[in-house]
Amino acid sequence: MNKTSGKTRTLVECALMIAVGTVLAQIKLFSMPFGGSVTLVSMLPFILVSFRHGVKWGLATGFVNSLLQMLLGFYAPPSNTVLAFIGVILLDYVLAFTLLGLADFFAKLFTNRAAGVAVGTAAVCVIRFLCSFFSGVLLWGSYQSSYEWADGMSVWLYSLIYNGNYMLPETILTVVCAVILYKAAPKFFSSQN
Prior knowledge:
Layout: H1 3-26, E1 28-31, E2 37-39, H2 44-53, H3 55-73, H4 82-98, H5 103-107, H6 113-138, H7 155-184
Antiparallel strand pairs: 1-2
Helix pairs in contact: 1-2, 1-3, 2-3, 3-4, 4-6, 6-7
């Protein structure tokens, strides 16, 4: 296969993963009232791109996905300031979804590929959680008063609980599915570069 057809194949595969991830994101097992949900492993296609084509392709595919996610369901920040909109765009979309492309970076730290797949997948899910967590602290804390259980709680703890409610199950589901898929079809995780 020549270089041009190889790049075309990679672009097509990345586009396919964006489509699959978008469909999986619409299958919500659980949704939070002010954004965030447990989906049917919607992060996994972008993590797979990272494992198959490296961090550069993973980041690029995640970035395109972040733009698509904004188009499909942008949650406007509670304060109508330019800084709040920029914060939501960066933390809740661009960084949260783009950084899923770092999975292979973390996986390469391990000689055992199965361990690398598990840790790489978990690491990028934690990064996505941290984006949501800091967004909750900095931008969405005013919604804390909507919950009786959060009355008098620090905004840090509120954001941890709120975002943990959907990101912890999403992370566990994604890591388990990534490891099962790796065990069943390790070639999907082989570098195609």
